[in-house]
Amino acid sequence: MGRILAIDYGTKRTGLAVTDEMQIIASGLTTVHTKGLLGFLEDYIAVENVEKFVVGEPKQMDNTASESEVYIQKFLEKLRKRIPHIPIERVDERFTSKMAFQTMIDSGLKKKQRQNKALIDEISATLILQSYLASNS
Q1: Strand, helix or coil at 3?
Q2: Tens digits of per-residue pLDDT, 9-43?
Q3: Burial letters 70-86, b for 16+ CB under 10 A, else e
Q4: Can you give the residue ranges of the YqgF/RNase H-like domain (predicted)?
Q5: Are strands 13-19 and 26-33 parallel, antiparallel or unpaired?
Q6: What are 28's strand-pairing partners?
Q7: Which CATH superfamily is 3-135 part of?
Q8: Domain boundaries along the sequence of the chain
Q9: Residue 111 binned pLDDT confidence (cut-offs 50, 70, 90)
Q10: Whether residue 131 has pLDDT greater than 70
Q11: Quick one: pLDDT at residue 104?
């Protein structure tokens, strides 16, 4: 079995999370500048066995696509061209940013630490991955 890598895509920063090789535990990996995302992913899969990408799918409350979906679709086209052998699945990410912020509060992070947007993105990717694992277990 290989790892599953989750992507919380953003136009500036992208949060990443990954499972262990047994696909049981989701852990935050890092946050990268979106401009360097494809290169980072290529470097990562050269070292780690990644079986699948899980990409957050932002939706409005009425279930329609969010405005950021346009940018995600462009990224997905590039990802499929550069790394065609790894399948991509989408996961509803409607409340992940709010849940990530609440997770930071619940874990006792100080206000200054909770303003770290990169950390929010990484936690959001972890929540996307946990949601995927829960729905596929």
Answers
A1: strand
A2: 999 999 999 999 999 999 999 999 999 999 999 99
A3: eebeebbeebeeeeeeb
A4: 2-100
A5: antiparallel
A6: 17
A7: YqgF/RNase H-like domain (3.30.420.140)
A8: 3-135
A9: confident
A10: yes
A11: 63
